[in-house]
């Protein structure tokens, strides 16, 4: 299937767009995002879309300013509104992952533009390769079924909808298409620096795995899709069970019926627990398998208090109480 056909197929399969949508396009200048910009431009009239091309200049490389100019000229040539912001990401780096700091600042910029222009949909150019790399990264770092979903084609975050219409395309076919169409793009030199974990996966681990199994990319992508389906299924069950075990609640606490919880399958129990924690604390960041395992081991005991990151778990004979900590 030709690139445009794959693009439209993903749009339809995952319900990414509808007529008269207003969409922010995150464009770096690399092959994937340049292809996405051209594809959106191609369907702009048919879908009656209002498009805004946004570019975040990280200020990390000498070619960063030239890339910003390149993206602006490209957007102008396609008659698409252009908005950019420049920040020296290195100035915000305080021991955290430089990749994560850059991502956080970039997403902050996306939200700011979206709020200013009253746009609710943001398109990003992640590909099948990005999904595969993310799955491998999470396997190595440690992940459950939620993490094995990799990158999703559609997610809602802070009242915005992020869509990824290139999610089923491989970078190789995108570059081939760009060359056939004689479309220019830029290459991010930092993609070849092995100090970044994702680059180590792409440059070293995936080529080795491909030697062991030439179909490894498809296998990992399918693992992500199956994990997403499984996660959606069990989450729906977990929401129903959470309502059954809920006994009392407040702004920062939730009391659950322990006897009913004990009767659940351990996997479903963990999902109910995760949803309950997200409800009172907003997320499950800083909590990993070790912490959930502690709770699983403690439910057969009485009068136990477990101190976890930003969370207290109290267990007595008949109740399990979750208390969120503000610090």
Description:
The model has no long low-confidence stretch (mean pLDDT 93). The chain is of the alpha/beta class and 327 residues long. The chain has 11 helices and 11 strands. It folds into 2 domains: 210 residues, Rossmann fold, CATH 3.40.50; 87 residues, Uridine Diphospho-n-acetylenolpyruvylglucosamine Reductase, domain 3, CATH 3.30.465. It starts with a helix and ends with a strand. It has a 6-stranded mixed sheet, sandwiched between helices. A 5-stranded antiparallel sheet has the order 7-8-11-10-9.
Chain-wise SSE layout:
Elements: H1 3-13, E1 22-26, H2 31-47, E2 50-57, H3 64-77, E3 81-86, H4 98-117, E4 121-123, H5 128-141, E5 154-157, E6 160-163, H6 171-180, H7 197-212, H8 216-245, E7 246-249, E8 253-257, H9 258-262, H10 266-281, H11 289-298, E9 304-308, E10 311-315, E11 319-324
Helix pairs in contact: 5-7, 5-8, 8-10
């Amino acid at each position: 299937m030709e690139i445009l056909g794959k693009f439209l197929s993903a749009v339809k399969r995952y319900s990414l767009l509808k007529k008269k949508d207003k969409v922010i396009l995150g464009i770096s200048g690399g092959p994937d995002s340049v292809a996405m910009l051209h594809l959106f431009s191609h369907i702009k009239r048919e879908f009656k879309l209002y498009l805004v091309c946004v570019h975040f200049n990280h200020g990390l490389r000498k070619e960063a300013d030239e890339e910003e100019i390149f993206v602006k000229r490209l957007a102008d040539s396609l008659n698409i509104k252009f908005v950019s912001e420049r920040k020296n990401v290195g100035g915000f780096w305080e021991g955290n992952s430089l990749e994560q700091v850059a991502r956080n600042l970039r997403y902050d910029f996306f939200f700011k533009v979206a709020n200013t222009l009253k746009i609710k949909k943001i398109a990003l150019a992640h590909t099948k390769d990005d999904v595969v790399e993310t799955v491998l990264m999470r396997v190595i770092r440690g992940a459950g079924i939620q993490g094995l979903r990799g990158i999703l084609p559609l997610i809602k975050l802070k009242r915005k909808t992020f869509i990824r219409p290139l999610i089923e395309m491989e970078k190789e076919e995108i570059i081939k298409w760009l060359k056939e169409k004689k479309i220019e793009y830029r290459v991010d030199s930092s993609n070849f620096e092995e100090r970044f974990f994702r680059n180590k996966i792409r440059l070293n681990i995936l080529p080795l795995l491909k030697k062991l199994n030439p179909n490894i990319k498809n296998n990992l992508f399918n693992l992500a899709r199956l994990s997403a389906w499984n996660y959606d299924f069990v989450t729906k069950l977990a929401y129903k069970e959470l309502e059954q075990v809920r006994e009392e609640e407040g702004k920062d606490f939730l009391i659950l019926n322990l006897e009913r919880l004990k009767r659940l399958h351990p996997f479903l129990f963990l999902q109910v627990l995760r949803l309950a924690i997200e409800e009172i604390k907003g997320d499950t960041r800083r909590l990993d398998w070790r912490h959930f395992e502690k709770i699983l081991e403690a439910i057969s005991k009485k009068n136990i208090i477990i101190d976890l990151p930003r969370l207290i778990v109290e267990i007595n004979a008949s109740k399990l109480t979750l208390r969120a900590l503000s610090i």
